[in-house]
Amino acid sequence: AGVLASGEPYVAVREGKVFARRLARVPDTAHEAQEAQEQDAAWGDTVLVTGASGGLGSLVAVHLAAVHGVRRLVLASRRGTVSAELTGELSALGVEFEAVACDVADRDAVAELLDRVPFDSVVHTAGVLDDGVLASLTPERISTVLRPKADAVWNLHELTADRALNRFVVFSSAAGVFGNAGQANYSAANAFLDALILHRRSLGLPGQSLAWGLWDRQDGMARQTTLDRSTALSSQEGLRLLDAATDTGLPVLVPIKLDLAALNAGDVHPLLRGFVRSRVRRTVEGGLAAQLASVPQAERSRMVLDLVRRQVAVVLGHDTPNAITPDRVFGDLGFDSLTALELRNRLNAVTGLRLPATLVFDYPT
User: Fold this and answer.
1) Residues 207, 351: one domain?
2) Contact of 313 with 321, CB cutoff 8 Å
3) Are residues 119 and 43 in the same domain?
4) 251: Cβ–Cβ under 8 A, 6 or more apart, which residues?
5) pTM exceeds 0.85, yes or no
6) Residues 6 or more apart from 96 whose CB is under 8 A from it?
């Protein structure tokens, strides 16, 4: 009965008590508590960075050289190329670097690279997106996303297990922590990274998974996302969090930017309920229905239409709902399966209803 009454999607029952999952802030003392235990926390002289041709991989490579004094970088990517901008920055810093072509999901290729190149730490940033609603995810589309995340990190894990690495840091995603509409494959891949790091730590091996929130970048995967950028991390914020996270030595962290005011005003994900003052459940009786009941009958249709137009504008990235013509087909406005799902979720939240995932297709204007 306690579980059913909790309203929690996932609970643990232990010794007659019900526990729910919550994210919590890393205390300011985390670094001090771990400092004595993490004497080998330095990156070392040589670091292997996978996904180095991507935006975050390049950013991290420069940061390791400029801030942490790493003197040699092995930059691995499938094509073995890096941008002229990255080449210029690393050259200006006087750091030795080598761009290598290596599909990290190919075990033999990884073994060959590791036999040839000695290094002290690993940063795995590689990954790709192939978003779509669950029913559209074929085995091939799932494999496309799992290979550079799960397969690659497993290869790195097994093939470096006998090396005395300083750090083994993987870039995971908050999608694996929260789940994210249209990203079942990507969420699963990142959840695997988080779990593998816990496995490594249980074996006494170094490891840390950083389940990042959205970065405010216009390259790599960030360019492809449909997520709200209002709480995206700037490059400076992200690198600061990278340093803070790696200093703690904790195995799995979620570096993310939260709008606490918005959380307090809206429907809160269960994992974030510890950050809000109180949880206010939206219901039809106490929300939209009450508002509609307070206005004359003739105004109710206009009120609902305005509400829908505002939500459509938010989903499509418009500043105002003026461009949302009521009789224009959603597909013509720019909707696809993912944005259709986002609109349904938003309408569910503001109305308290349980609208179908096919809403935009069933009622196309």
Assistant:
1) no
2) yes
3) yes
4) 197, 198, 201, 207, 208, 209
5) no
6) 71, 72, 73
The distance between the two most distant Cα atoms of the chain, rounded to a whole number of Å, is: 77
- 267 and 329 Cβ atoms separated by less than 8 Å: no
Taking only the tens place, the pLDDT of each residue in 212-223 is 999 987 655 544
Name the residue among 316, 236, 244, 211 with its Cα closest to residue 41: 244
What does 142-163 look like in DSSP terms, one character per residue? HHHHHIIIIIHHHHHHHHTTTS
Q: Which two tokens stand for residue 299?
A: 């105004």
Same domain, 47 and 124: yes
For 337, how many CA atoms within 13 A lie in the half-sphere containing its CB? 11
194 and 332 share a domain?
no
Tokens 């459509």 locate to 312
Across the range 264-284, mean pLDDT stands at 66
Structure tokens at 290: 């009450």
Kindly list the distances between the CA atom of residue 147 and the CA atoms of 37, 109, 140, 141, 221, in Å, as whole numbers in the listed order: 34, 14, 10, 10, 15
Q: What is the pLDDT of residues 35-44, one digit of tens each?
A: 434 444 489 9
Tokens of 221: 């995967």
77 neighbors 57 (Cβ within 8 angstroms): yes
Same domain, yes or no: 245 and 293 = no
Rounded to 10 degrees, the C-alpha dihedral 101/106/108/110 comes to 50
